[in-house]
Amino acid sequence: MIRYIYFLASLTFIFLAASTYAQTGIVKGKISSEKKPLENVQISYNGTKKAFFSSADGSYLIDSLPIGKIKLYYSLFGYSDAFKIVEVKANDTVIVNINLITETTHQLNEVVVSGTMKEVSKLNSPIPVEVYTPTLFKKNPSPSIFESLGMINGVQPQLNCNVCNTGDIHINGMEGPYTMILIDGMPIVSSLATVYGLSGIPNSMVKRIEVVKGPASTLYGSEAVGGLVNIITKEPASSPRLNTDLSGTGYGEYNADIAGKLKVGKSSTLVGINYFNYSGRYDKNLDDFTDITLQNRASIFNKWTIPLSQNRMASLATRYVFENRWGGQVNWDQNFRGSDSIYGESIKTNRFELLGNFELPKQFVIDYSYNYHLQDSYYGVTKFYANQQVAFLQLRWTKTLGKHELLSGLPLRYTYYDDNTSGTQTLSRNNTPAKTFLPGIFLQDEWKSSEKLSILAGLRYDHHNEHGSIFTPRLSFKYSPNNRNTFRLSSGNGYRVVNLFTEDHAALTGAREVVINNDLLPERSWNANFNYSTLISHRNGFISLDGTIFYTYFTNKITGDFLSDPQKIIYDNLSGYAISKGLTLNTDFSFTNGFKVMIGATYMDVYQKDKDAEGYLKTTPQLFAPKLSGTYAVSYTINPWKLSIDITGKVNGPMYLPVVPDDYRAEKSPWYNLMNLQLTKKLENGLEIYGGCKNLLNFLPKNPILHPDDPFNQPGGKYFLSNGSPNPSSNPYNYTFDPSYNYAPMQGIKGFLGVRYNLK
Question: Where is the signal peptide (predicted)?
Fold first, then answer.
């Protein structure tokens, strides 16, 4: 069946591609900023990565352009990307002069790709996409993108363990496995790697981060159930020659980001190195456990752009990450790894990534990626050793036919997973790694029915080697009555294929039998959202407003029953459903006097309904999903002094926490505000110094670990009798060691200092 689908799709590609023909025109002009010419501005058209550059006087010329409507993109480090649509006629010359403005954190005219898998301006995208540049993240610098994402409204980096500090990304309250993480549009970070894959991406390599809230499986396939985060890396040609960022904190956390570009023949390459070290054994809350994990991490990222011909380019990027992290009792060291005398959780990670694409004739593009993730870890005495490999290949094609912009693709994803638990063993104890084949095909049509209205429709078909056929449609409308106001109405379907083999298996013994009740169905979600955005310009700056009402209905959630039979793990789909609904608002005020304000707020109601023992639907609120939350960034630049003052923060309302029966700790967190202050002084020749305080209000959660003085639940110890049953005098409620009660960082107020240098 799949072979026939691929054969027919390939014939369709060839037939449509044959309709293209070669007539050309010329575009030329000058690029400036504040009436000064700009040199080395990168210019591309219709998504190509062919490197055209402006000369010293700001002039440029692009010949041999195909006739018709052409989208031109202008990019230069330190300036916001610009976007222009021109009509090119045969043997004609079009004059296009562009004025670039200095880079801001959030603008409506930025170029985005995540919503439609094509480069379009944010204003023209029928899918609401939030765009964030490093300008925002530099207002509160952190050593990893995982922490930086906490500055985005409605996005919550959630730590799932107070000992090893593993975490994932929640969007609009949905759990981390339902957020897809992409690097340059490639599905690099998934499954086993989700909790570690966002560490070690050099911040100096990041051009922007795009966030789509809501299902995106029609284009991106499995895992894009609750939303996606797409990390777009810089293009080598338009990057600074050298970019360094060195910083440290009062807790002894040291981070170094270094990136530089080279020209090798006609190709360009960008190399980024990140090193992070934290070795301070702090125990501020006196529970005998490290407040946060100690880490030693190094990564290297290398990206190439290679010209294939005059109008075609290829890109290739690789990344290697090594990390050694541990948390536990403060007197633990590597000699106690896996022992039962002093408790520690030690995780060693080796990770390699390869991704890129190359352009073929007739508007075809091949995308590819591969990642290898090896994890060697101990959780106390329990060893968890896992290996995951994911290979991805996709043939993509675009075509403009009148008012229709077509996009189609043939993706194929292969996943290999193996670990040392019973999850990958048969009853005869033979090892059986999980191997998943997921080929598919998708088609998208964006119909611009008028100057004001565009309609986007898409459909995807995937065939899973265990679940069979999966269809995911979506439909979106964009209406812009004028250049300032835009309304978007979107609906779509997301799915996530069954993935039983996660770190939960680390708590199991090899004697357990994995039992799957019924034929497990893929987890599904249906989403609808209504978005409104506007840009209000005035002589002193601009104000942008963006608001979204969202509703997601989630079914077929897969859970594991560990209690019914101590010899088995029983998996089944929930008979109920989950809901995520709410409202998110973002505002951006920017004034020419150097004063800027960004404020975001989210209200959401996230819960799950499932049948209880008597068959009635029971409502369970989602953990770590505050009904009210918000972010803010207030900045002021004193231009004569070249001094910037930034106050940033995140406010979270009460959220449900993982308490145990008869827990003495509160089932909800309190209101709290994580406020940060930073001063940045720009010096001559691209040098700047920054410093300040994080967690200015010194907020710390209470009692994050249950029974930290008995992490092994030792029989015959303080809380358990020699037969393993709870001691009625010291442990009447049968408490066991539990480090999952986590809702805020375990570090109080801390100072930081850093220096940056950019050589353009």
Answer: 1-22
Instruction: Look up residue 125 and give its DSSP letter.
Output: -
460, two tokens? 């995807």
* pTM assigned to the model: 0.84
- Give the SS3 label for residue 504: helix
Measured between its terminal Cα atoms, the distance across the chain in Å is 54
Q: Own/partner pairs for 117-121, CB < 8 Å, 24+ apart?
A: 117/185, 117/219, 117/396, 117/407, 117/409, 117/444, 118/47, 118/398, 118/405, 118/407, 119/47, 119/71, 119/73, 120/71, 120/83, 121/83
User: In this predicted model, what pLDDT tens digit does every residue of 670-715 receive, in sequence order?
Assistant: 999 999 999 999 998 889 999 999 999 999 998 899 989 889 888 8
Q: Which amino acid is at 634?
A: V
What is the DSSP code string of 220-236?
Answer: H-TTTTSEEEEEEEPPG
Q: Which domains, from first to last, does the chain contain?
A: 1-103 (2.60.40.10), 228-704+739-759 (2.40.170.20)
| Angstrom distances, CA of residue 184 to CA of 178, 318, 395, 525 | 19, 12, 16, 25
Closest CA to 280 of 266, 258, 295: 295
> Per-residue pLDDT averaged across 70-97, rounded?
81
CA angle 258, 261, 266 (to 5 degrees): 165
Among candidates 522, 552, 685, which has minimal Cα distance to 625?
552
Cα 383 from Cα 380, distance rounded (Å): 8
Backbone angles phi, psi at 152, to 5 degrees: -95, 130
Strand order in the sheet with 206-213: 130-132, 206-213, 227-233, 179-183, 186-189
Which segments of 235-343 are extended strands (E)? 242-249, 253-264, 267-278, 294-307, 313-328
Query: Model confidence over 605-625: pLDDT tens digits?
Result: 999 888 776 777 888 898 899
What is the maximum alpha-carbon separation in the chain? 92
Residues 721-742 have a mean pLDDT of: 88
